[in-house]
Amino acid sequence: MTEVRAPKRPLNSYMRWTAKNRADIKKKFPQLRAKEFTSKLGELYANIPAVEKESYAAEYKKDMEKWKKEMDAFKKANPDFVPAKKGKKVPSASVLTGFALFYGCELVKMEVKEEKTISKGTAMKKIVKKWNALSESQIKKYDEVAKRTISEGVIPKKRAPSKKKVEVEKVEPEEKPVEESSQEYGEEYSSSDESSD
């Protein structure tokens, strides 16, 4: 399946000027860092003659009219197309996997326990070990719950990364069969965890 792409919006007059002059300006000011260089571009653009700015603006206006026509034709040809909003990714089937669901559940359990402090990287290694110890049917159930979560439109929000160490218990993979109801919610270790307290 090929991805449908909308016509690309034209660059505004400042971006056109920048694209045309960036390399030359970079040669004149090689010592500037990215932020300083961007400021320098803005400063130089502000000082170009009005006639030059108007020519870039005229090019933009012409290309914008052409783009609007192309976009109208594109929308008619692709009525189901939904453009991605700036700064937000369109959710896809890969947003939540069975492993991601399992990882989230295990990480929360580790943060609740306060026996031993380890880094997030070490916690990840331990969770991966647990995941690899699961049977095919257990993994399949996590995948099914993740797919159902996506299809129902309930995609969990990302948590802000924690700067503190994660509290965990010593992890030994369990090979015992898991009940279906507890497996569905990622709680296959909860009964053994609670009894050890």
TrEMBL record:
<feature type="DNA-binding region" description="HMG box">
    <location>
        <begin position="7"/>
        <end position="75"/>
    </location>
</feature>
<keyword id="KW-0539">Nucleus</keyword>
<dbReference type="Pfam" id="PF00505">
    <property type="entry name" value="HMG_box"/>
</dbReference>
<feature type="compositionally biased region" description="Acidic residues">
    <location>
        <begin position="181"/>
        <end position="197"/>
    </location>
</feature>
<dbReference type="InterPro" id="IPR051762">
    <property type="entry name" value="UBF1"/>
</dbReference>
<dbReference type="InterPro" id="IPR036910">
    <property type="entry name" value="HMG_box_dom_sf"/>
</dbReference>
<keyword id="KW-0238">DNA-binding</keyword>
<dbReference type="InterPro" id="IPR009071">
    <property type="entry name" value="HMG_box_dom"/>
</dbReference>
<feature type="region of interest" description="Disordered">
    <location>
        <begin position="153"/>
        <end position="197"/>
    </location>
</feature>
<protein>
    <recommendedName>
        <fullName>HMG box domain-containing protein</fullName>
    </recommendedName>
</protein>
<feature type="compositionally biased region" description="Basic and acidic residues">
    <location>
        <begin position="164"/>
        <end position="179"/>
    </location>
</feature>
<feature type="domain" description="HMG box">
    <location>
        <begin position="7"/>
        <end position="75"/>
    </location>
</feature>
